[in-house]
């Protein structure tokens, strides 16, 4: 049950959690990096709303993972108790005396008390691994490929990101707007950055 139902769901939640955490971090970094521009443009609410939306989603996915990590414990314990009760019922229906079942039931209960915490920990670790699996897969893919991930999520070759910088770099007619906004921060701006 855990491997076939909980693990895929946990993996999906882990993927959404990672996407939302990246989004929240992006908006936080943009806010701190451009605090002067944001104040001048009076766009604090825009940045605050975007960060808050992502942060709330991060919190929601974290709650779901916590619930998923606890849920298998109750399922395992319920199956254990149901198994013992079914075994008792079968034994009684076959004509066994309840007094004769006490040593066997005691042995099962002691084994269950000793094994259930370990089984629960194993289940929680499987759940955590599946939750983090998407992020780990992404890291391994990026490290193996020799590519870097750009701001837009596109993979770009590291050598393509280097721009020659001899005396100056000129920017001509640069237009920029944040992803979720129609308001342009730069509209056909041109400038030159001198070396030194």
Provide a brief overview of the structure.
By secondary structure, the chain is α+β, with helices and mostly antiparallel strands.
Task: Annotate the secondary structure layout.
Blueprint lengths: L1 H32 L1 H7 L2 H50 L4 H48 L1 E3 L5 E3 L10 E10 L6 E11 L2
Antiparallel strand pairs: 1-2, 3-4
Helix pairs in contact: 1-3, 1-4, 3-4
Helical percentage: 55-70%
Strand order of the largest sheet: 1-2
- Beta-strand content: 5-15%
| Alpha carbon gap, first and last residue | 63 Å
What string gives the helices and strands in order?
Answer: HHHHEEEE
- The backbone outline, from C-alpha atoms, is elongated
Q: Number of helical segments?
A: 4
Please tally the β strands and state the result: 4
Overall structural class, as computed from helix and strand content, comes to alpha+beta
Q: Give a short account of the largest sheet.
A: 2 strands, antiparallel
What does this entry look like structurally?
By secondary structure, the chain is α+β, with helices and mostly antiparallel strands. The protein is built from 4 helices and 4 strands; from the N terminus they run H-H-H-H-E-E-E-E. The chain has a two-stranded antiparallel sheet with strand order 1-2. A hairpin with a 5-residue loop joins strand 1 (147-149) and strand 2 (155-157). The chain starts with a helix and ends with a strand. The relative contact order is 0.11.
